[in-house]
Amino acid sequence: MKDTIWIKKGRFTPLAILLMLALPLTTSVICLCFGRMNVPVGEVLTALRTALTGGSAANVQNYSIVINLRLPRILMAIIVGAGLTCAGNTFQSLFSNPLATPDILGVTSGTCVGAILAIILSCSILETQLIALVFGLASVCFTLKIAGKNDGRSMVYLVLAGTIASSLFNAVGSLLKYTADPQDKLPGRHLVMGSFTSASYQKILIGCPLILAGIAVIYLLRWRLNILSLSDDEARASGINIKQTRMLFILASTLITASAVSMCGQVGWIGLLIPHCARMLVGSNNSYVVPVSLSLGASFMILIDTLSRTISIIELPLSILTAIIGAPVFISLLNKTRSNLR
Q1: Res 275: pLDDT
Q2: Distance (Å, whole) CA 311 – CA 109
Q3: Eight-class DSSP state of 139
Q4: What is the pLDDT of residue 150?
Q5: Which of 30, 25, 24, 23 is nearest to 307 (CA)?
Q6: Would you tell me the crossing angle of helices 286-310 and 71-94 to the nearest 10 degrees?
Q7: How far apart are the first and last CA of the chain?
Q8: How many whole angstroms separate alpha carbon 62 and alpha carbon 216?
Q9: What is the model's pLDDT at position 163?
Q10: Exposed, middle or buried: residue 203 (CB in 10 Å: 0-12, 13-18, 19+)?
């Protein structure tokens, strides 16, 4: 690969590593300042230092805003953004399809059904998250069962089965929303449109381990994504077990997506858009795309969350903003790379 400011002699340059680490951290600190009540950067840094050292806060109001209200949202945005981007890039490589998204196997639809059902049953936040996660994993098992064993066309059948499962779970979700109490249960449906309103350290502790575990598996085995993107014959020649490796990546991506949706609801576009942006920077080698995607995805999700709570009196769902921003950007990317997609 040709040397660039990002990669030199087959490795990330120190500048690239610094940028990947600094981008989400800097974005986080800046976005902690903005909201209904702006907080100076100095006060934000003081609050963070106080929280880390366990000292007493000089300004209790600013400390509460930064640590108790905004920091959980920022942390959840980092985890969800990085996770969904990683899952999206994995599915795009597995299926050799630049339009593949984290919900290609129906996991998002299944998780949303679980969340809606839990809301209708007046479950607690913890119970809602766990039920949503179980339904998400169940939807993927349902997809794999429909796909069956078709050695020659297994990936094609898997995509078709995912489409069927998504349609079925979307229909069930619509039915549940239709029967919900419009005065009590229906307002909770913002969960299926994506929101960090209910972010808390407890929810992060529940959903974070599965997302981090999925990211770790994909990151450590990211070089195998390059092999799986080849034809089956070429992939078998490399000596890896194609079926087991694919299922491992599918399981890791499913855990990421189900956990993310169970924490904040459905967030579209990020798993589709950000991997393309990463490839524009470092090429198609997943050894480099995955780390860059993690940094860009986390930073992008932080910005989206900040916009959702600042540009309007009423907090906007995340999926609305990601669609408004993502669609024009993706159209531009399509126009620039049209020749490569033919």
Answers
A1: 93
A2: 29
A3: H
A4: 54
A5: 30
A6: 140
A7: 23
A8: 35
A9: 87
A10: buried
**Model's pTM, two decimal places?**
0.90
Whose CA is closest to 272, among 283, 257, 262?
Answer: 257
Q: How many residues does the chain have?
A: 342
Largest Cα–Cα distance in the chain?
Answer: 66
Answer whether 285's CB lies under 8 Å from 116's CB: no
Report strand pairing: 7-8 vs 11-12: antiparallel
Looking from the CA of 225 toward its CB, the CA atoms found within 13 Å total 29
- Region class of 54: left (phi > 0), else alpha (psi between -120 and 50), else beta: left
Cβ atoms of 116 and 134 closer than 8 Å:
no
Q: Taking 90 as the threshold, does the pLDDT of residue 45 lie above it? A: yes
What are the structure tokens assigned to 42, written together?
A: 């100095």
Q: Which two tokens stand for residue 318?
A: 């995340």
Helix (H) or strand (E) holding 12: strand 11-12
| Interatomic CA distance for residues 77 and 204, integer angstroms | 10
